[in-house]
Amino acid sequence: MRARAQGLVDANSMKVHASGELDGAVYGHVLKVARLVVVDGVGERHGGLYYVDGVEHAFIPEGYRQRFTLIRNATGETDAPSGPLGAAASAIGGLF
To answer: pLDDT 10s digit of each residue in the chain, 96 long?
Structure first.
């Protein structure tokens, strides 16, 4: 029973995904996989803490860009404080 219950939990975790791209110079931080970031500016339902699931760093003539994917296990309010990712919230390509 315990293994079956854990299997159901695993199958239904991390269902909220977000992706986007940000200007690394404006953001001022380097995103790292498996770290938590705070997303601001997308409302109470989708704002809050996310895990960085993937990030690509690109140094191009226009500057330093970071393409990222974020995940978390639920929507809703969080007790997370506002964070520096607020400037990048408009870069999120969408929640799917």
So the answer is: 888 887 777 777 778 889 999 999 999 999 999 999 999 998 888 899 999 999 999 999 999 999 999 999 877 654 544 554 554 444 444 443
SS3 track for 29-45 = CCCCCCCEEEECCCHHH
Cross-strand pairs, 59: 64
For residues 71 and 2, the answer to whether their CB atoms sit within 8 Å is no
What is the C-alpha separation between 82 and 95, in angstroms, rounded?
19
The SS3 call for residue 89 is helix
- pTM of the predicted model, to two decimals? 0.67
